[in-house]
Give the backbone structure.
Amino acid sequence: MQGITGHQGQFHTRAMLDFGTKVVAGVTPGKAGIKVEGVPVFDRVRDAVRRRKANASIVFVPAPYAKDAAVEAVEAGIKLLVIVTERIPFHDSLDLVPYARSKGTVVIGPNCPGLASPGQSKMGIMPNLLFKEGDAGVISRSGTLTYEIVNAMTRAGFGQSTCIGIGGDPIIGTSMVEALALFQKDRSTKRIVLVGEIGGTAEEEAADFIRRRVTKPVVAYVAGRSAPPGKRMGHAGAIIQAGKGTAESKVKAFADAGVPVAQYPSEVATLLASTL
Amino acid sequence: MKFLEHKAKEIFARYGIPVPRGIVASKPEEITDPPLPCMVKAQVLVGGRGKAGGIRPAETLEEARQVAGQILGMDIHGYRVKQVYLEERLSIAKELYLGLTIDRSAREPLLMTTAMGGMDVEEVPREDLFMEHVPAMIGIQPYILRSLAGALSIERDIAEQVASIARRAYDLFRKEDAELVEINPLIVTGGGRVIAGDAKLVIDDSAEYRHPEYANLDQDRTPLEQEAHDKGIVFIQLDGDIGVIANGAGLTMATLDALALKGGRGGVFLDLGGTDDPAKVKQAFELLIKANPSVILVNIFGGITKADTVATGVKQAIDEMHAKVPVVARIKGVNESAAKEILRSIGTHAAETIEEAAELAVRVKLGGP
């Protein structure tokens, strides 16, 4: 847990321990020697790896220091890195994400609620109470909207195998397509829920991947269907997106791939019932 | 952060990108010594101003003042023209295009160019567009500039100037935390010089903290949007009349979508984000009340943001402002029951689901229970 001594870091260390996560060490430069929720704190990620065998890290440090913290973790040999921090300048992510990937580190986020496998472990900030063990894999670009949908699933009796909050930033470590590929392989996942939103082309790429490679049933929700089109400055964005990126384009891409799309978040549970 | 053309050109010039000579004016009488003959250009934070009549030529000082007077105050795609830029008129032999942005899927910057610059670049056929990714970890390499120059099929001397501008634009893109650097048209003059005819620059809002020199630029926000921005609150005014406050962009959008499906329209989009400070919630809610909505719809899923923190902030704002606006609240998650108790005490309409909350908000707006 990088940034363990902060208010949020402390709160979520407790929540992660309660969920069953083995939180073996915290890191805050200058705070070595103290304990937070019984977890020993070190100055450097390297010390946490050497002394406590940490193999994954969750970054809670404020945006201006997040790149530094993440690179330190990768250099210390961390192979799974969850970056919760929001508002990291995307040029920092442009440096950091390809670098971490080139070193063989899996990055989730930035600007994400993290990962949770009910009954096993959680690296993130999702409220513990929402989850229930089950066979649905959840992939989401959003934070609280994920809670909303997982809550609706749990109430309707659909538990989760794993929930991956991939993050809402333009540059993210694990894409929607990569997360889909993981769930397609995962034996404990029998069905998949995708939570998307307007902007970018991740949903269109996911729909294409589902058509070609995913045999498990997938249902989706897309936020922003009523949003007015943004006022544009230049042409470059439009050239890259080539007509994609809108809610209509995403909903149509999913429909063409045979993925039903919910109108309300809670409707995801109803759609899941049809996959039984 | 979006930049007006003249401000963007000032930054371009700092990076050694050639720009025409020009002066800025916000009143015709401020114009005393424009570079003549000139183009009078509306300064607005939106594209498409040429087609809208916001760029016109002038031959003399009198004409420049007269044209400036006509353009100032114009409405261009919802933006009022507060400044004009008077720029030397160039002899144009050719109009190219150069753009830099990020490709989210590739996780890399993308350099784009075409020999068919000018208006409507997105209409240019794909095969006439040159696109090359730049590996951010390594930076722009000579091969990228070579293939760019080759793709444009222009004389060698011109191609070298374009390559130099591309390298400088990339330098600017990285150092200034830009989301977009765009030159359209990139003018080749009759004399064989390459000059940035226009300049579009957008800088990542999340990087504002390391560019304090741009903090006071006019972003054309409404007064309430500006007040919210100064307080660090995400607040966007829309066309409808129902105020929506939620936590997280996705949930806020989902709430607006539900409202639309139930026949309502969001008037304000307020994303509370992750806060656990009732004072900040109170500030946000006060802004919402000031926007004078017919109903306020609160939709909170508590996590980092505790539900009772939000309820406390809402109560404080309503009490202090003696607000009469009806409030529909749907609160879930951490400390839900405490939150519901507080909200009941101030007479809000409670809902259990997003659909229910949206329907109730529309009903309350129409005078129903």
About this structure: The mean pLDDT of chain A is 94.
